[in-house]
Design a protein that fits this description.
This is Protein sel-1-like protein 2. Belongs to the sel-1 family. It comes from Sciurus carolinensis. This protein has 24 helices and no strands. By secondary structure, it is mostly helical. It is extended, with a radius of gyration of 37 Å.
Amino acid sequence: SVNEVKQFLSHILERRRSSKVINKRENLLGKKKKQHKLKMKGILNKDLLERNKNHLKEQAKKNFTDEGDDLFNMGIKILQESKSQKQKTEAYVLFAKAADMGNLKAMEKMADALLFGNFGMQNITAAIQLYESLAKEGSYKAQNALGFLSSYGIGMEYDQAKLFSGLFLFTVADNLEKSEGIPVEKVRLTERPENLSSNSEILDWDIYQYYKFLAERGDVQIQKALYYFLKAAKAGSANAMAFIGKMYLEGNAAAPQNNATAFKYFSMAANKGNAIGLHGLGLLYFYGKGVPVNYAEALKYFQKAAEKGWPNAQFQLGFMYYSGSGVWKDYKLAFKYFYLASQSGQPLAIYYLAEMYATGTGVLRSCRTAVELYKGVCELGHWAEKFLTAYFAYKDGDIDSSLVQYALLAEMGYEVAQSNSAFILESKKAKIFEKEKMYPMALLLWNRAAIQGNAFARVKIGDYHYYGYGTKKDYETAATHYSIAADKYQSAQAMFNLAYMYEHGLGIAKFTLRWKWMKLDNMLGPYWDLFMIGLIIVMLIFLIRNRHR
């Protein structure tokens, strides 16, 4: 029927519509699936491409880092083996390239050079910027350096909370070469700065030139040193002959290593009775350099040089008896010669004395003495050669560079450096410090030096309190410090100052009782208070017993 046909057509149309909708949906879903597949494929391809790119970047970065490391290591090698200014410059060129590649150690080197003024390029502002950048990267050396600069207020705001009181860990050893065998003279600027040594007849102008050669080590300086030595040797200077021998024994750009030439000049000096020449001959025979090993001859020359007070010869004698090299072991004689050499600051002699005390070899074992001696060895480490560069910077008028170097050594606990830093600050010649901060910082450094037993520094503290330098005027405190210097160190200046204060009644009325207590402290030692408590207890017991009777 028509109705059935209509119904059937409607049904078919409905089915077709449904089918179209379903097909449309399926097609749409299929397209979406296809698109998703293509998209996923693209993502995967893109991810793979990105991974490849990252891998290449990482590889390039690694190659870049490796190249920076190689340049830094090459620079270190050249610096360690350098015997000329040209070689040092080459090393720092490599450090600069490595630093440009992001090598942190090279950047630390460049920052140090900017801070200390190596090669005359001191720039504290640039050094601080570099240290700050390194500190963010986690460099403990940079953090320590910033702490040091902040503790002195050099180039940045002064922060007393960052004072390290001698425990500063900044490493300057990397900037210095090994010791040349002569104990480094720590010149006190407060004494006679024109004399490099005030306590040794051996050290004269010739050795001044050698010290300058050690401090600067440039090609020009080596040529100069050799020129002066040859000229002085021709004029009959035994010291010059000995140092020419030393230069040829060790070898450098001006005097290539030559044992025969070293022997010749050592002999010339020894014939004049020169201790350095005699010691040089002893070394040649002891080590067999240019001559057969001959311990008997070495012993003979070492003894002659030791008798003339040369510390290196005294050490060599001590070592021969300590080790039994060519002689019977004799720890008493070893101790004797090590002790003699140690009095002139010979580092190895002090070390062996420390070893003997630590192990009880030839002496009664004493850990306390050993520790004190080991501390002495640490203070004579090759970083102490910074005293040379600091001193010559001062002599050449480079006050800022000298002050930074002395200040660093002061933070490492060197009393002489603390005094010298205070002396420079007091002179108000430094440009890197604000003038109003110089006296307070100088007072702090004089205090540190006084704690380590410097009588002159103790008087200086009294002066600062007397005149109100870097602190308020305080006659009582001034008198306290003068009395310590007078009683403990018999300082003539301190005695005069106290007499003047007594005469004019300056801070003495209040001070008299305190001085009496201080005298009691000097008589009975640091435990006088315990002694007095004990005495009072005895008196009380005595009174109680008498009452019961």
